[in-house]
Amino acid sequence: MLFNSLEFLIFLPVVFVVYWFVFKPLRWQNLFIVVSSYVFYGWWNWHFLLLIAFTSFCSYLSGILIQYDRQNGGGAKCYASLNIIINLFILCVYKYYNFFAESLVETFSRIGIELNLTSLDIVLPVGISFYTFQALSYTIDVYRKKIEPTKDIIAFLAFISFFPQLVAGPIERATNLLPQFLKKRMFNYLSAVDGTKQILWGLFKKMVIADNCADIVDNIWGNYAGHSSLMLVVAAVLFAFQIYGDFSGYSDIAIGTARLFGISLMRNFNFPYFSRNVAEFWKRWHISLNTWFVDYVYIPLGGSRKGKFQQFRNTFIIFFTSGLWHGANWTFVLWGVYHALLFLPLMLIGKTKKYAESVAEDKCLPSIREFCMMLVTFILIVFGWIIFRANNVMEFTDYLQCIITNANVSEAIGFPKKIFFFIIILLFIEWINRTKQYGLQFLLPKRWMRWILYLLIAFIILTQMGKQVQFIYFQF
Questions:
Q1: What is the C-alpha to C-alpha distance for residues 56 and 36, in angstroms, rounded to an integer?
Q2: Number of domain units in the chain
């Protein structure tokens, strides 16, 4: 079920009303969340409900067994390791088997050795990387004694399957989300209103920015050899706003929806295109995944405690792994390596932690230096998005070659100019609110002004209701 669908427009109010006015006891509320979440996920393909249920039960049982083994003098390591292996095995089979099998066959064929590895005819379950990593965080945190294992299986199933963030995050930690299903929740009107505004802003970013950019990007990318250098650069820039509007829009809708049910999810985006270097960008982009890799990969590998070489190595590993997490394609790996190479010079000069505050925090406009830094960072990020968008490495290199060789190709600008108007609105609103949690959290001093803005944004969104474009990150 898509957030930007008519089905969800009906689904959400029904679930909201039943949740607060029918199932008032905590356990019944949690059970209703589980049922609603399984309906939400099963709307796409009910067969994969068995997979998420299996992942949930394995992770739930691992916590119980880890505690039991520890109380009886064991180290509990075997149970933690077993659940991690099971979850990663499922993820690898569904997401990476065909990729590695085909890569091995191609590699060995180049040296004259024929391998006979059969590809599997399997469909990638939506959101498998997201809920698998969330399940893994629970097992690891229980093993590390950061959280006590729960015996409330209904609350645990709700933690894994909570429908707002089930298929595209944020990837929650058990230490944050699970305790919220174990205590009584009270309806908070102000929080619900704030959540509704965040949903509205998320829908604007998805349906107005991302989907309109997608039409242009897909059209140009489908025949990039026949377009001018200018149009190819425009397509790359629009893809940067497409993927930002798509993914951060999803996160805003997820976080806002969760607040309607008295649940607080972690922030996933912090206005990343206002970053002054690549290190700051990665603190502001897909925060839940990046901090997951820091907590469960980078720090266990030693972090930056043993010198620059180990810091470089560990950074390269998490960027490589993050790239591979995004999909079974060498372009994602190359994209991760590219960002690692951008990151390393900043580590050498000690600039990775320089910018903790928002740019021009106490000013109306950035300085010329800050503006230039943001512009250079954005250009570097856009180049990376060309790698990310390409279907394969050959297409990426061809696209770059066309940017260089098609400089003399002249063509009429045939894309709707209104998308740039909407992007300007996006940047203007988010710049004003760059110290806030999301774009519409605080904007205009008068209530009637705010309502005019909300209604205007809602009207623009309604004009886009005719098409339902799937979220990009559903494939991950």
A1: 16
A2: 2
Distances (CA, A) of 430 to 29, 222, 256, 273, 434: 35, 31, 17, 10, 6
CA 404 to chain centre: 32
- Which pair of structure tokens corresponds to residue 275? 């970053």
Classify residue 302: in a domain, yes or no.
no
Active site residues: 326
Same domain, 427 and 452: yes
Tell whether 200 and 94 lie within a shared domain: no
Whether residues 143 and 268 fall in one domain: no
Domain stops at, among 169, 184, 199: 184
- The whole-angstrom separation of Cα 41 and Cα 47 is 10
Answer whether 230's CB lies under 8 Å from 406's CB.
no
Residue 390: C-alpha distances to residues 8, 64, 296, 332, 468 (Å): 31, 44, 29, 9, 23
- Residue 412, pLDDT score: 62
- Burial class from Cβ neighbours inside 10 Å (0-12, 13-18, 19+) for residue 99 reads middle
> 453 burial class (0-12, 13-18, 19+ CB within 10 angstroms)?
middle
200 inside domain: yes
Q: Which two tokens stand for residue 127?
A: 């959101």
* CA–CA gap between residue 314 and residue 304 (Å, rounded): 8
Q: Give the pTM.
A: 0.93
Query: In terms of domains, do 152 and 200 share one?
Result: no
Pick from 132, 207, 120: nearest CA to 171: 132
Judge if 38 and 137 occupy the same domain.
yes
Q: Which helix (H) or strand (E) holds 289?
A: helix 287-293
For residue 179, the model assigns a pLDDT of 95
* Residue located via tokens 């494939």: 475
Domain hosting 177: range is 6-184
Evaluate whether 255 touches 268 at the Cβ level (below 8 Å). Answer: yes
**327 located within any domain:** no
Q: Are 261 and 185 within 8 A, CB to CB?
A: yes
pLDDT averaged over consecutive 10-residue blocks of the chain (476 residues)? 85 95 92 96 87 95 90 81 93 82 67 68 82 94 93 96 91 94 93 94 94 91 89 94 95 96 96 95 95 92 80 91 88 94 89 85 91 96 96 94 85 74 94 91 80 90 78 73
Cα→Cα distances 225→7, 388, 474, Å: 39, 18, 29
Residue 439 structure tokens: 């774009």
Do 40 and 163 have their domain in common? yes
Within-domain flag for 452 = yes
Residues 21 and 162 in one domain: yes
The set of residues, in sequence order, having a beta carbon less than 8 Å from that of 369 and lying 6+ positions away, is none
CA 40 remoteness from chain centre: 19
Nearest to 139 by CA among 73, 85, 209: 85
Domain boundary among 126, 153, 184: 184
